[in-house]
Amino acid sequence: MLRYFKYLLLSILFLPAALLALEFTPASPQVEAGYSRSLEISGGEGLVLWSALKGRIEGAGDRVLYTAPLQAGTDVVTVLDSLAQFAVLSITVTPSVQPPLEVSMENARWQIFSNRSKIQSIVYSEDGESLWIATQGGIEQRDPYSGEILQVLTSADGLPYNRIISLTSDGNNGFWAGTVFGLVHGEADGKNIHTIYPSESTDLYDDHISALYLDNQHGLWVGVRGSLLYRDADEQWQQWKLTEVGFPESDNEVNRLWLSADESQLWMGTDQGLAWLERDTETWQVFSPDNSPLQGRIVRAISGDDAGGVWIGLGAEDETGGLAHRDVNGAWSSLTEQNSDLPYNYIGQLLADGEGGLWVGMSGGGLAHLDADNDWASMNHYDSDLPNDNISVLTKTLDEELLIGMSGWNGGGLALFTDLTDFSAGEIQVLDTSADRIPDNEIQTILVDSQGGTWIGAGGFLLHILADESQVLFDQSNSPLPVNDTRVMSLLEDVDNGGMWVATLDNGLFYRGSSGDWQQYTVDNSGLPSNQLYELLHDNEDGFWITTKDAGLVHFDALATGAWTVYNQDNTGFPNNRIQTLLLDEDDAVWLGFGLDELDPGIPGGLARRDQLGNWTFWAKNASTLPDDDITALLMDGVGGLWIGTRNQGLLHWNDMQQMQAHFQELPEQLPGSSIQGLMDDGNGGLWIAVYWSGLAHRSNSGVWTHFDNSNSQLPDESVAVLSQNVEGGLWLGTQQGLAMLNFGEKNKLLRSISEQSARDSLLQERRAALIIHPSGSGSGYNQAAAVDFMATYAYRSLSARGYDNDEIYFLSYKPDIDVNGDGQSDLNVIDAPVTLTQQRTGTPARDLQQTDIEIALRWAKNQGSLDQPLVVLFIDHGLPESLLLDPQGLDSISAQALDALLDDYQQTTGNSVVVVLEACHTGTVAAILSDTERLVISSTDAQLAYYDDLGRLSFLKLFFDQLRQGENYQQARETVAASLSGLRWPLNQQQPQLYDEDGQLSYACLNGCFGGLPGLLTLTVEPPPSVVAPGQSLPLQVATHIGSGSVRNVWASLSTPEVASQRNEFGYSRNPTPNFYLRRSETGDWQGNIDAFNYQGDYQLTVKAEDNSGFITESPSINLKVESGIAIQGADFDANTGLLHVPVVTLANTVGGTDYFQVDLLLEDRPDGLLFNIDAIDMLSGQPGGVSYANFELSSGLLYVPDIQLSSEEDGPRYNADLQLMADGGLLLQRLGQQ
């Protein structure tokens, strides 16, 4: 058939135009490359067949959908009817500014936005390695010292629901979590999350877990609505119904549980009072305002008083509340605003200070402290840096500071109070480490405006993400939106006047003008028949349509007459007044989808159409045309037909004759469910479908179905309710548990910044491939694995930003659940081997890499065939001379010679050039061996160590990819980074990156082509601090940020201290965390904070860093500071008179994954073959010493690295570092001596 049409086309081209009786609409169409539009023919008879020379035709008859080819130019469409009439249409295919996205499961890239600012509970793991935080958007695992988010656990990881109400430790570094759908347990790494209750005991009272407490016997106390439960270590359950305990009503919530120090007494706070259980006798006593001095019934907080008594925190709007105290002898006292200096009566949390005093967190009143002398001190967000006055959690940190969790309608978050001994000296440090936050998790509406911004209605909030990705939140503080008692349901842009219409449920209609002024329309001051509004839709003239929940349809002629017109059941014949969706078709007719009446579900719904003349047509429920009259979504199909989403019968398709052409129900090969919430055109003739509680479905223009749910995506939950196209051609998805953005690569975003057509064509048409090799970075350095993970993900993000899709990157990693985009959640379709995230979630354990994995990866690279760009190979982890480690214990490695052979085989097979980048110690020795023709090899260092600070955010690889992102070629990037490293403090300034390019050509190539730098460069301006600092001084810092596009997530100061610099392991990692100080944005837009880690005498280096919304980090030039007095770090000491080298600490990795510490004395022996040190004395130390410089012995190589050596006779003289090689006779030969 296609051959016939092509022959016919050639014949038609030579016919006179008069012979062609058929007429096309439009007559001279222009279509963007890759996009679709409808075409019509008139004058045809009978069956009409269509054909396109280059593009694609969907459908038949008088109207079809045409999709243009991806290349610009001219296409020809041919039509033939049953009378052998034929016609030819020439179509101009214009270059596409943004090609339509190809839906690909492998290239799906998710970014999740959720409200995790409302903190419910905080728990430290027993080993001090994790900080678990319960939020309304999942469970965060953070670094306990820096506050960095390590991962966020959600329903995708096994939680039954993302809203976490309560949290406690499991006694084994894992956690117990309470949700509205039951009790779950998670192990120390956050894996193997599974629901324990109600599955273990289905006859228990409720699965709304509101309070948890773990006792010393690993028994778990569980508070649920109406009951208290106890699960012992043998998994046996016991239950006390609250009415049996002594409370009057069964509808009673357990808010707080607390055990006395000897665990003989359990205290339980509820909505109806306080209960006390004497465990030995199982005797209960209930306290309320009726029988005690309690000034309220709702108990929200309980804490011991360090003397055997108990503090009670109360709080409710209709009660006095405040504090109550019961001492060890049973005597009661009460403290309120009225009889004390307690600032506020609504108590959120209590914590004994260990000195006879009490920390008090108030829900709306900030933070207060009552000392042992009964003196009060307090702070709130008006008189301090406390960001929120709604304090829900208080706990002591491992560093003996106060960690504050906040919650409330205007957000919350985490903050530190730095001084527990002196309230006046303490400072607030805000831990704001993620900007992927939204004000509420229940998304109602999304609108992308004409300026490229995005408006999101969430709960009673309105969030505006501008085109430059900065954000404005509208709430009670800057708008009349009544946050607490409404929901933003729909948005409509007033394009001509720069305004925005906002429809709400219960509070009518709002208008925000271009100048920021607001106006509200309700039943009291307008023609609205109801304040319960659903949807807004422009009428293509001067007004818009409004649907209501209970009062029918409204037309508002806003720009002309200001008239309001109401259509309802009484005056128009509607089946009912509940209109759930509406649509304007190509003829400007209005379609309405009715829901079932809430008060009387027996009243039918159905479908209606109003034409331009005001004539109404109604369709009721009918098995052959409309099998469900609960209509939830409507969408035109582009060729005169209609897609209809229903509540119970799935998806319907009507043709242009209003006949049911297809009916898609819940079938594995079609829809994942039958309740449709939303429909959206994909711009390429396909259809996106939001399926309630069943995720997201896509039907391509060729009828291929793709499903996204919790098993294969990162949807916050499967209750997708809102769909909208984002500015990159992907999707915004609104759910009940958060917001998701789905894209299929970064090419469209990148194309917006490239104007040269040849560069645009190269990006879309060229073939490319990259390979990332990422073994486990575990080791004795502080959070060493996290540092290596950061560098690997930073490389991945950089490749992605320069135009590499997921299927063009082979990511070989030990960590299947890695987070590459920085939203805290594991990213699907990123790790390709040896274990994927999907495999891990179905039971396959993660494992370390092996050489065979690299061989398989290079076989994948071969299968990519001939490339237009060099194959990029990255190795990021640990190295030894002439080899690269594949596991942290050194049990498996790949030699430089073996890797060279694999690359030789790849290049001989494909003829492709290769760029190799090595980030590991000693990689200069590997790079020299890998050097070859058509191969560029770059190493982070020479034969010596490579160094990393700030969890990898100060490293060769990070700095190198920063330069590649900005368009520098490989040679320029290496030179820039080498210069940057030389300006850093010791030991990073010892690092010498290497470059090998035998042909002298590849080093001038750029990553994925030399099309320039990426947009949105973030720069910093730092107000210079004084160069000399006193010991213990707090140094104020002020920073201004400048960004071309996008937004700034975080700004922090990283301080390299003498202690961090001097305590490094055998791979160059610091054994101590680099102190980071997060700055807070001031009202003027600058970022401010204080630096207070100047504890030792010596040199410091301050670097200010800022992270943008894409996860890329910019740093300021380093600032050198000095502490001239105080205690100095103790290094190794060499006595030239005796030849004795005293090394205060030598570290050695032990066989169980830890580190042993030794003190060693070495005696110098001058021999003809060099300087040899013999061991004179060695003592094993208990614990990890502080205030000293660490030397490291690397067992696999026999190398002792001594980073800091001082001559005894020259206290203020130069300092040195040295490498000593273990010899066969047990001596240590001096290999290298360098000066710091």
UniProtKB/TrEMBL annotation:
Keywords: Phosphoprotein. The keyword Transport does not apply. InterPro entries: Peptidase_C13, Reg_prop, WD40/YVTN_repeat-like_dom_sf. One of its GO terms (biological process) is proteolysis. It comes from the Bacteria. One of its GO terms (molecular function) is phosphorelay sensor kinase activity. The keyword Oxidoreductase does not apply. Pfam families: Peptidase_C13, Reg_prop. Gene3D superfamilies: YVTN repeat-like/Quinoprotein amine dehydrogenase. This is Two component regulator propeller.
